[in-house]
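hiii, so i know i said id send this last week but things got crazy w the move. better late than never?? heres the sequnce for the chain we talked about at the cafe, plus the structure i predicted for it. fair warning i was half asleep when i ran it
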Amino acid sequence: MLRLGFPVIGVSDVDRAAAFWSAALHLVVAEEWASDRWRTLEHADGSGRALGLMHSESPVEPYPRVHLDLLVDTTAEQTAEVARLLGLGATEVGWDRYPAEPDFVVLADPDGNRFCVVDLSKAPSSG
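okay and structure toks below
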């Protein structure tokens, strides 16, 4: 039976990406799945794999068709998490496609891959 696995992000620096995403999402590197071109990150409680990081030489897409949404429950939590992620090395993206009252903030990981921090108390975005 076909099953959905986990998302894989293409990155130029696997070590840097593993450090960022591990800290951002409280994940750990699965050492048995680690190489110089790949990392599997799993939940620290042992509940399974969460994210793959694959070395890639292709450029970052400024408007990616697929991206990660990281979820929070309140606006205060969104503000705090955005600040924490910026402290870990994420950057703010000058996103020109925000709706009038967005429930999300667009950030980029240290490789420039876009992702969103979504405030579920305001979801879905209007507009």
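btw The chain has two helices and eight strands. thought thatd interest u
miss u guys!!
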